[in-house]
Write a structure and sequence with these properties.
The chain is α+β, with helices and mostly antiparallel strands. The chain has four domains: 224 residues, 2-Layer Sandwich (Heat Shock Protein 90); 134 residues, Ribosomal Protein S5, domain 2, CATH 3.30.230.80; 108 residues, Rossmann fold; 122 residues, Four Helix Bundle (Hemerythrin (Met), subunit A) (Up-down Bundle), CATH 1.20.120. It contains 21 helices and 22 strands. A hairpin with a 2-residue loop joins strand 18 and strand 19. Helix 10 runs antiparallel to helix 11 and helix 17 crosses helix 20. The N and C termini lie far apart (95 Å). The mean pLDDT is 89. It binds adenosine-5'-diphosphate (ADP). The site of adenosine-5'-diphosphate has 15 residues, from helix 2.
Length: 619
């Protein structure tokens, strides 16, 4: 017998499972059945594709045996099994990336959201929610030796050679005192029906029924199949109830909340396939991890092929859970060539079109539900705007933005319908948080004309901005670019004396600015910043620097409001110091209102102090 210690992350997880998760303990059964079903899937695939496995007399099934007297529950499958090395690796470590971060986040969270941990997939380790000791016996189909793994979940486990009839895995849970109910037949039966009814393999339950007949106790051994054991997605749609879809979702996703939406397609014709896609009602925890887990399982004629092919769906739809089952692929399609496969590419393309179409009709027919949907997935859908050019038009209908016109989310369609006469384009303002954007001086002229401006306050907005050039026949223009300013009216006439003011400010600011121009749009504020059309916006530059990218310092254009009292009063001044202080304050306050720190705060403070002293000392 050899002793092993669990990987740190496993210990952390076990600690959380044993000490913090009090609700939904029953999901341990779903997790173990799901593992057994995966093991059967894997072996089934091998028996159909590998010569050496074809001779196996394989009748896939799951057997659950209850021993109520001794408080034991045993789950047996005749699947792929594990040898000693695999037992140590799979039941001693967690390979998933992001685990460490996830666990420390969860450990710090006072609520210990059991739903989160469910989505994370506690898997095998959830057995320790109800058991004080877990024994695993396992043997691989083509190997002679069987192995035993055993642990009480407190830091260590042991492995040793053992024996097992047939191949597969047998897990024995020694239930702890608070959880003896899980050795009772009615309890387990109802749990299987609730969570695992749609597992595609038969689940048999074995227990002893005790009856009292003629005042005598009789024992009867019972063996019954509890689940339906058919592939739900292949059953006719009209036979399936909402409840069936919801249960099935829970059995494949590890979520215990109902899904928000689902779409079931049984396509016949040149290509024959079935898809069943679900939208979770809460975003998967790893949605924004680079190494997220795919939620789509690929089947070929009901045989499970893989669940880790991220190419089955575009990345911006990675929140989907569900199934793709093709009738046309060869069973032994190698996982490596899946990606170049034409059949799959076709299924993917039509599925994406179909799903985006469904989202669009949802937004028209059920705005309330759509709101919920978009609050979860707006950001990830926006990624599609630069990654999926073919479906861009449809994606533009789906994404939502903040706006000056109303609270909440706004669509481009609604914007277009509200446009005022004379308005030439869709205007957007990006960078900074919603509050800063709402107060931006750049908005003044648009407000006074009643023109709506979309406020792109999300980080992703800044990234998609370069690809947001048109919606239908309308151009989308950033109002912090010089170009958009022209839409506000013809070039203002600038008097000679005003020209001198502009030039003088420009001379003072020197290479801090690209240009100083008269404002076409400022009403209340004295100044604001613009970038020229070919330069990235200031916020974009800031973000690139934050990401560690070297950017050459691009200079802004300073726009000043010549009608503002400051500028009016300035032109009459003769003192050089006043000119220089005021010019610097005009530039720095424009940075500030835009949400950027002034270049040299001490310089700004010095200028302000001089101006204040002068104002105070005037009688
Ligand atoms: P997950 O199922 O999410 O991978 P688990 O902790 O539940 O995580 O299981 C870890 C691994 O242990 C599985 O990926 C699988 O390789 C192996 N395993 C678990 N249960 C079984 C089983 N009944 N038969 C064969 N392998 C299993």
């Amino acid at each position: 017998m050899s002793a092993h210690t669990f990987q740190t992350e496993v210990n952390q997880l076990l600690h959380l499972i044993i000490h913090s998760l009090y609700s939904h303990k029953e999901i341990f059964l779903r997790e173990l059945i799901s593992n057994a079903s995966d093991a059967l899937d894997k072996l089934k695939y091998l028996t159909l594709t590998e010569e050496s496995y074809k001779g196996l007399n394989f009748d896939p099934r799951i057997d659950i045996t209850l021993d109520e007297k001794n408080h034991r529950l045993v789950i047996r499958d005749n699947g792929i099994g594990m040898n000693e090395g695999e037992l140590i690796e799979h039941l001693g470590t967690i390979a998933r990336s992001g685990t460490r971060e996830f666990l420390s986040r969860l450990a710090g969270d006072a609520k210990k959201d059991s739903n989160l941990i469910g989505q994370f997939g506690v898997g095998f380790y959830s057995a320790f929610m109800v058991a004080e000791k877990v024994e695993v016996l396992s043997r691989k189909p083509l190997e002679d030796r069987a192995w035993k793994w055993e642990s009480d979940g407190k830091g260590t486990f042991t492995t040793e050679e053992s024996s097992l009839e047939g191949w597969g895995t047998q897990i024995t849970l020694h239930l702890n005192a608070e959880n003896h109910e899980y050795a009772r037949s009615w309890e387990i039966k109802s749990l299987i029906k609730k969570y695992s009814n749609h597992i595609a393999f038969p689940i048999h339950l074995h227990y002893t029924r005790i009856d009292y007949k003629d005042k005598k106790e009789t024992e009867e051994k019972v063996d019954e199949q509890v689940n339906l054991a058919s592939a739900l997605w292949k059953r006719p749609k009209n036979e399936l109830k909402d409840e069936d879809y919801k249960e099935f979702y829970k059995s494949i996703s590890g979520d215990w909340e109902d899904p928000l939406l689902w779409y079931h397609t049984q396509a016949e014709g040149t290509l024959e396939y079935t898809t069943l896609f679900y939208v979770p009602s809460r975003a998967p925890f790893d949605l924004f991890y680079a190494d997220y887990k795919s939620g789509i399982k690929l089947y070929v004629r009901r045989v499970f092929i893989t669940d880790d092919d991220k190419e089955l769906m575009p990345t911006y739809l990675r929140f989907l859970r569900g199934i793709v089952d093709s009738e046309d692929l060869p069973l032994n399609v190698s996982r490596e060539i899946l990606q170049q496969n034409k059949v799959l590419a076709n299924i993917k393309n039509s599925s994406v079109k179909k799903i985006l179409g469904e989202f669009e009709s949802l937004s028209a027919n059920n705005p309330e539900l759509y709101d919920k949907f978009i609050s979860l997935y707006n950001r990830v859908l926006k990624e599609g705007l630069y990654s999926d050019y073919a479906n861009r038009d449809q994606l533009l209908e789906l994404v939502r933005f903040h706006s000056t016109a109303q609270e909440g989310w706004v669509s481009l369609k609604a914007y277009k319908e509200r446009m005022k006469e004379g308005q030439k384009a869709i205007y957007v303002l990006s960078g900074g948080n919603l509050d800063t954007l709402k107060k931006s001086p750049l908005l003044e002229a648009y407000k006074s004309r009643g023109w709506e401006v979309l406020l792109l306050d999300q980080e992703i907005d800044e990234i998609i901005l370069p690809s947001l050039d048109k919606y239908q026949d309308l151009e989308i223009r950033s109002i912090n670019k010089l170009e958009a300013a022209k839409d506000l009216g013809s070039e203002e006439r600038v008097e000679e004396s005003e020209k001198t003011t502009l030039e003088r400010i420009k001379n003072i600011l020197g290479d801090k600015v690209k240009d100083v121009i008269a404002s076409r749009r400022l009403v209340e504020s004295p100044s604001c910043l613009l970038t020229s059309e070919e330069d990235p916006t200031l916020q974009m530059q800031r973000m690139m620097r934050a990401l560690g990218q070297e950017t050459t310092e691009l200079k802004p254009i300073l726009e000043v409001n010549l009608k503002h009292p400051i500028l009016q009063a300035l032109s009459g001044q003769t003192d050089e110091q006043i000119w220089s202080d005021t010019a610097n304050v005009l530039l720095d306050q424009a940075y500030l209102t835009e949400g950027t720190a002034p270049r040299d705060p001490s310089l700004l403070v010095a200028s302000l102090n001089r101006l204040v002293i002068r104002a105070l000392s005037q009688k």
